[in-house]
Design brief:
five-stranded parallel β-sheet, FAD/NAD(P)-binding domain, alpha/beta, elongated, four-stranded parallel β-sheet, single chain
């Protein structure tokens, strides 16, 4: 009896969703042939799923955001599936060989790599952040390094006088609000700033407005809420470098930072938080699979990497098709996994493949951003959201109480959902790499 593996690299938002979808809707549809069985193998550097959305609050306060609200064990979420259909491996993918259809995996403590052969490969390795405060680091075992990072940061935080945050996307804005409220407290109901601020918090924005996915009026509202917490926003300026003398080896935070800005000025700071963006976790992949941004180049309608016969797909922020975000997964995962199922059935039976499922990005204005524990800004489906609605949805606990378990358990993909086949037709498709 032969066991064929659907291999998923990455156990965060996209990888977990793809694994549940495959177990529920792909494996049961595959024809039994010559005693062949199929399994879904999920590889992730850590045993826990890090709800990274909560990072801005989790790094500031254990009381406001205990680890039980942002670290969740992965394996128990798959316990209900039939024995032998799911396998979890803690490790890091270090090399992919498309010729042999195999992946080299190094264990969490750096032991010798093992090799896993795959029938189909789903790349869901996501992105990393320059600051360790927002990424579950690949060297971590059971969350220990992440918790140590937060602990060191939280010990340093109460004594600081100046904090600089580079980057004014949602993570930078949220982190600025959380830190400023923690240090300076909440302002009075009608106050425009904290009554007795203890620290200066400076948010450095490279563009002329914060939160680039949102309209300018919402960005201005965010600035108003930040100022009430004691945050100063510097626009049209980039952080060139942040130099320090004393480094805390775990947290990468330090006293006596000198932050160099693109306008030639410098800021002396106790803490510098780099929230300037993300970096794709794709360094282990063949170079021909990557675009100029080091994202996985794919067909932006089918999410295939290479031609149909390669049986390689990408979901999540590592892919070239997406502008990022958790909500995008609701459209991308069903597309990639339905096309995987179609391709596998054709491969096993030798019959002509069925129609493609097409990914259509949701480009409506859609992002919500808490600012401290009481305020927030955002839009959903193109409509501006009141502050109290942002608080109700995300500001209370960064959605860790309701949405995190749904992602972990794959609740959004209990059913395949309705979809319209590609009108071009399967017989005409010939998918190649797309670098745009």
């Amino acid at each position: 009896m032969t066991t064929e593996t659907i291999l998923i690299l990455g156990g965060s938002f996209a990888g977990l969703s793809a694994a549940h979808y495959a177990l529920r809707h792909v494996l049961p549809s595959l024809p039994k042939k010559d005693g062949t069985t199929y399994t879904v193998t999920l590889v992730n550097p850590n045993k826990d799923f890090f709800w990274r959305i909560a990072g801005p609050r989790a790094c500031v306060s254990t009381k406001l955001m205990p680890s039980s609200k942002y670290l969740f064990p992965i394996e128990p979420a798959f316990a209900s599936y039939p024995k032998g259909t799911f396998n979890f491996i803690q490790g890091i993918a270090t090399h992919v060989d498309p010729t042999t259809k195999s992946v080299s995996i190094t264990g969490p403590t750096g032991e010798q790599p093992s090799t896993i052969s795959y029938l189909a490969l789903i790349i869901a390795t996501g992105v990393s952040t320059p600051s360790p405060l927002f990424t579950h680091q690949v060297r971590a075992v059971d969350g220990e390094d992440l918790l140590s990072t937060f602990e060191a940061f939280q010990k340093l935080l109460p004594s600081v006088k100046t904090v600089v945050i580079g980057g004014a996307g949602p993570v930078g804005v949220e982190t600025a609000g959380e830190i400023a409220e923690f240090l300076n407290g909440k302002p009075g109901f009608f106050a425009s700033k904290p009554p007795h601020p203890k620290a200066k918090v400076i948010l450095v924005c490279a563009e002329q407005k914060m939160l680039p996915l949102l309209r300018e009026s919402i960005s201005k509202q965010a600035e108003k809420y930040l100022k009430r917490l004691g945050v100063e926003v510097v626009y049209n300026t980039k952080v060139v470098s942040a130099v320090h003398d004393t480094v805390h080896s775990v947290s990468q935070t330090a006293d006596n930072f000198t932050v160099h800005l693109s306008d030639g000025k410098t800021i002396a700071a106790d803490i510098y938080v780099d929230a300037t963006g993300t970096r794709p976790n794709t360094g282990f992949l063949p170079s021909e699979w990557l675009d100029s941004r080091n994202k996985v180049a794919c067909d932006k309608q089918t999410l295939r990497v290479g031609d149909v016969g390669s049986l390689v797909y990408v979901v999540g922020d590592a892919g070239s098709y997406t502008r990022g975000g958790v909500m995008d997964m609701n459209d991308a995962v069903p597309t990639a996994m339905t096309n995987l199922k179609t391709d596998l059935i054709a491969s096993v039976t030798g019959k002509a493949p069925g129609p493609n499922r097409i990914y259509k990005p949701n480009l409506k204005e859609q992002q919500i951003c808490p600012i401290g524990t009481a305020k927030g800004v955002g839009a959903f489906a193109g409509y501006k959201m009141p502050s109290f609605v942002v608080w109700m949805i995300k500001g209370r606990d960064y959605m860790s109480g309701q949405m995190a378990p749904q992602i972990l358990n794959g609740d959004a993909f209990k059913k395949e959902g309705k979809w319209k086949p590609d009108p071009v037709g399967a017989a005409q498709r010939k998918v190649g790499l797309s670098s745009n």
